[in-house]
Amino acid sequence: MAEFVGAIDQGTTSTRFMVFDHSGAEVARHQLEHQQVLPRAGWVEHNPVEIWERTSAVVQTALGKARLDARDLAAVGITNQRETTIVWDRRSGRPLHNAIVWQDTRTDAIAATLDRDGRGDVIRHRAGLPPATYFSGGKLQWILDQVPGVREAAERGDALFGTTDSWVLWNLTGGPDGGVHATDVTNASRTMLMDLETLDWDDELLGFFGIPRSMLPRIRESSAAAAAGPYGTTRVLGPFGGEVPITGILGDQQAATVGQVCFAPGEAKNTYGTGNFMLLNTGTEIVRSKAGLLTTPAYQLGDEPCVYALEGSIAVTGSAVQWLRDQLGIISGAAESEALARQVEDNGGVYFVPAFSGLFAPYWRSDARGAIVGLSRFNTNAHLARATLEAICYQSRDVAEAMCADSGVQLEVLKVDGGVTINSLCMQIQADVLGVPVSRPVVPETTALGAAYAAGLSVGYWADTEELRQNWREDTRWEPQWSEERRAEGYAQWKKAVERTLDWVDV
């Protein structure tokens, strides 16, 4: 039996490949960033060819460094940035436009129109999502309407749509030469095109956006059912250099939910990456949010029923730290943000609301834009660095409050993962802002681990979810230190700052 399971983690700013052993410990990894294409204000794109090239490179490099090959892998899972939209030519494999990234706001008029004419209520009920620039349906409509020749190609059956999991899967399994065009329930649910109850594309929703059904990938379970077999097999001439079954697909936040072993209703995790994403397992029940959250599949393992979640999606958290580095130049790297912020005891009255792409959960305001408020001559770049870390934590509290309102579940501890969790100050602030302990596992990159778990469960590498629970180990815990008075005052000021960002853009 092969000793390891691999996971491709195709994220917003980089792609990595990781290999795990039976205990869930990391055996190998390699990671490469890709370019962020910013054609104009509010537009964010990626080059799909570059993404595929980076995927191939990280697989080959990680396997090479660890002296592994395809025979050492029992299976491979894929996890990905979710709503990012790619359209490509079925015959040539050539992308017909750059990928439109989930952060992109060019479709705000499409979303506003859906809400005004009542179709938005149908989307909310059927897909569990509000009409928003975040999701794939509007991005796909924009490509069909605005890029010459794409709609004609789609009507002929020559244009394919997918989120980046589908793009990577298609290329791994042969591309124009027999590539598999599929996705899983978690990614399909982020399009505004899938019915939460049937777990299939919905013809009425497709009609709202003018999308031909022939463009869409087949929707499958997140961990391939044994009877149905793998999604596909890697090609001998591909980056793995041999045949490996691809048996797990999960959107990145759902993958982190699996990696954090949140398998029981009421268990929650928060992932800190480019944005923040908090998910609360609600079991097989579809809980429709009244507080600005998303209703979404958490995972579907093999033949078992789909498990659902409430999700709070925050557009800009870790990428706000990148903004300090790349646009303002006040830090040279993300790690420096902690040292700079530690130079001050508090934020000095400064609040930073990084609504660069509008505000996501629980506000859903595409008219908002970023604002730094409370400045005086006393303030320094250290106060801005501290305010940036606090913004990550206050946005997470906004979501936690909404989850409590929808579910009645009070957080007792918050499981955290993702790149920002190496920032100890930020995690301490998170515990202070929430008033509950924050717990980071030994393997903080649980997104890749969750994809590996889904793939391994499918082929029997792991027997069941209980075996996965036994792998989870706490690495660090942060206990709240703020007084209730300081916590309440800080949150009240944060809410005031959020108000200042609204109604900035005419939609």
TrEMBL record:
<feature type="binding site">
    <location>
        <position position="134"/>
    </location>
    <ligand>
        <name>glycerol</name>
    </ligand>
</feature>
<dbReference type="InterPro" id="IPR043129">
    <property type="entry name" value="ATPase_NBD"/>
</dbReference>
<dbReference type="InterPro" id="IPR018485">
    <property type="entry name" value="FGGY_C"/>
</dbReference>
<dbReference type="GO" id="GO:0004370">
    <property type="term" value="F:glycerol kinase activity"/>
</dbReference>
<feature type="binding site">
    <location>
        <position position="13"/>
    </location>
    <ligand>
        <name>ATP</name>
    </ligand>
</feature>
<protein>
    <recommendedName>
        <fullName>Glycerol kinase</fullName>
        <ecNumber>2.7.1.30</ecNumber>
    </recommendedName>
</protein>
<comment type="function">
    <text>Key enzyme in the regulation of glycerol uptake and metabolism. Catalyzes the phosphorylation of glycerol to yield sn-glycerol 3-phosphate.</text>
</comment>
<feature type="binding site">
    <location>
        <position position="253"/>
    </location>
    <ligand>
        <name>glycerol</name>
    </ligand>
</feature>
<feature type="binding site">
    <location>
        <position position="12"/>
    </location>
    <ligand>
        <name>sn-glycerol 3-phosphate</name>
    </ligand>
</feature>
<feature type="binding site">
    <location>
        <position position="252"/>
    </location>
    <ligand>
        <name>sn-glycerol 3-phosphate</name>
    </ligand>
</feature>
<feature type="binding site">
    <location>
        <position position="318"/>
    </location>
    <ligand>
        <name>ATP</name>
    </ligand>
</feature>
<feature type="binding site">
    <location>
        <position position="419"/>
    </location>
    <ligand>
        <name>ATP</name>
    </ligand>
</feature>
<feature type="domain" description="Carbohydrate kinase FGGY C-terminal">
    <location>
        <begin position="269"/>
        <end position="457"/>
    </location>
</feature>
<feature type="binding site">
    <location>
        <position position="318"/>
    </location>
    <ligand>
        <name>ADP</name>
    </ligand>
</feature>
<feature type="binding site">
    <location>
        <position position="82"/>
    </location>
    <ligand>
        <name>glycerol</name>
    </ligand>
</feature>
<keyword id="KW-0418">Kinase</keyword>
<dbReference type="Pfam" id="PF00370">
    <property type="entry name" value="FGGY_N"/>
</dbReference>
<dbReference type="InterPro" id="IPR018484">
    <property type="entry name" value="FGGY_N"/>
</dbReference>
<comment type="pathway">
    <text>Polyol metabolism; glycerol degradation via glycerol kinase pathway; sn-glycerol 3-phosphate from glycerol: step 1/1.</text>
</comment>
<dbReference type="InterPro" id="IPR000577">
    <property type="entry name" value="Carb_kinase_FGGY"/>
</dbReference>
<feature type="binding site">
    <location>
        <position position="252"/>
    </location>
    <ligand>
        <name>glycerol</name>
    </ligand>
</feature>
<feature type="binding site">
    <location>
        <position position="274"/>
    </location>
    <ligand>
        <name>ATP</name>
    </ligand>
</feature>
<feature type="binding site">
    <location>
        <position position="82"/>
    </location>
    <ligand>
        <name>sn-glycerol 3-phosphate</name>
    </ligand>
</feature>
<keyword id="KW-0067">ATP-binding</keyword>
<feature type="binding site">
    <location>
        <position position="134"/>
    </location>
    <ligand>
        <name>sn-glycerol 3-phosphate</name>
    </ligand>
</feature>
<keyword id="KW-0547">Nucleotide-binding</keyword>
<feature type="binding site">
    <location>
        <position position="419"/>
    </location>
    <ligand>
        <name>ADP</name>
    </ligand>
</feature>
<feature type="binding site">
    <location>
        <position position="83"/>
    </location>
    <ligand>
        <name>sn-glycerol 3-phosphate</name>
    </ligand>
</feature>
<feature type="binding site">
    <location>
        <position position="322"/>
    </location>
    <ligand>
        <name>ATP</name>
    </ligand>
</feature>
<dbReference type="Pfam" id="PF02782">
    <property type="entry name" value="FGGY_C"/>
</dbReference>
<keyword id="KW-0808">Transferase</keyword>
<feature type="binding site">
    <location>
        <position position="16"/>
    </location>
    <ligand>
        <name>ADP</name>
    </ligand>
</feature>
<dbReference type="InterPro" id="IPR005999">
    <property type="entry name" value="Glycerol_kin"/>
</dbReference>
<feature type="binding site">
    <location>
        <position position="12"/>
    </location>
    <ligand>
        <name>ATP</name>
    </ligand>
</feature>
<feature type="domain" description="Carbohydrate kinase FGGY N-terminal">
    <location>
        <begin position="6"/>
        <end position="259"/>
    </location>
</feature>
<dbReference type="InterPro" id="IPR018483">
    <property type="entry name" value="Carb_kinase_FGGY_CS"/>
</dbReference>
<feature type="binding site">
    <location>
        <position position="423"/>
    </location>
    <ligand>
        <name>ADP</name>
    </ligand>
</feature>
<comment type="similarity">
    <text>Belongs to the FGGY kinase family.</text>
</comment>
<feature type="binding site">
    <location>
        <position position="83"/>
    </location>
    <ligand>
        <name>glycerol</name>
    </ligand>
</feature>
<feature type="binding site">
    <location>
        <position position="12"/>
    </location>
    <ligand>
        <name>ADP</name>
    </ligand>
</feature>
<feature type="binding site">
    <location>
        <position position="14"/>
    </location>
    <ligand>
        <name>ATP</name>
    </ligand>
</feature>
<feature type="binding site">
    <location>
        <position position="274"/>
    </location>
    <ligand>
        <name>ADP</name>
    </ligand>
</feature>
